[in-house]
Amino acid sequence: MLHPNQFQINEAWIAFQLNDAPIETIKDGSFNCIALMDASSCLILGNVFVTTAASAPSPTDLQRLLKTGWEHKRQYPNTLFVPKGQFEAAVSGEATRHGISVIPMEERQLLTFIGEARQGFREFVQRGSGREA
Questions:
Q1: What is the number of domains present in the chain?
Q2: Of 60, 106, 49, whose CA–CA distance to 83 is shortest?
Q3: Quick one: pLDDT band at residue 131, thresholds 50, 70, 90?
Q4: Does residue 2 sit within a domain?
Q5: Per-residue pLDDT reduced to its tens digit, 36-71
Q6: Does 133 fall in a domain?
Q7: How sure is the predictor about 26, in pLDDT bands with cuts at 50, 70 and 90?
Q8: Distance in Å from the first CA to the final CA of the chain
Q9: pLDDT in the model for residue 130
């Protein structure tokens, strides 16, 4: 099982869906929030909102997401972990352009990293919608 203490800052990033259920808006429809996290610090480096009508983030969304990560240290990581079956093909193309190796993993193997961020986001969304956590 992977753990944050196995990595140096900016050695590896994780791209994952932050929300459990689509984020509903009245005006623009439903969205998923795709986040980028540093594997060592578990710091969220950036995020993009992607319509649920799309099966994966667009190349523009991925460029923007990786650019926000790059702006933290002015470098890209060696490795990008993504949950298997969740937009891994879309991410691979953009990451490879920047010399980043993409490693698909079972989502449960990433929960040590992303679990707390998801819980915090879930609570934030529930508070914002007026529902109890």
A1: 1
A2: 106
A3: low
A4: no
A5: 999 999 999 999 999 998 888 999 999 999 999 999
A6: no
A7: confident
A8: 29
A9: 57
- The answer to the question of residue 66 being in a domain is yes
Full-model pTM = 0.90
Amino acid identity, position 76: Y
Q: How many CA atoms lie within 13 A of 93 on its CB side?
A: 11
The answer to whether the CB of 98 falls within 8 A of the CB of 76 is: yes
In a domain, 87, yes or no: yes
CA distance 111 to 24: 24
What are the structure tokens assigned to 99, written together? 């010399």
CA distance 133 to 127: 7
What is the extent of the structural domain holding 69? 7-128
HEC letters along the chain: CCCHHHCCCCCEEEEEECCCCCEEECCCEEEEEEEEEECCCCCEEEEEEEECCCCCCCHHHHHHHHHHHHHHHCCCCCEEEEECCCCHHHHHHHHHHCCCEEEEECHHHHHHHHHHHHHHHHHHHHHHCCCCC
88: phi then psi, degrees, rounded to nearest 5: -65, -35
Q: Give the CATH number for residue 85.
A: 3.30.420.10
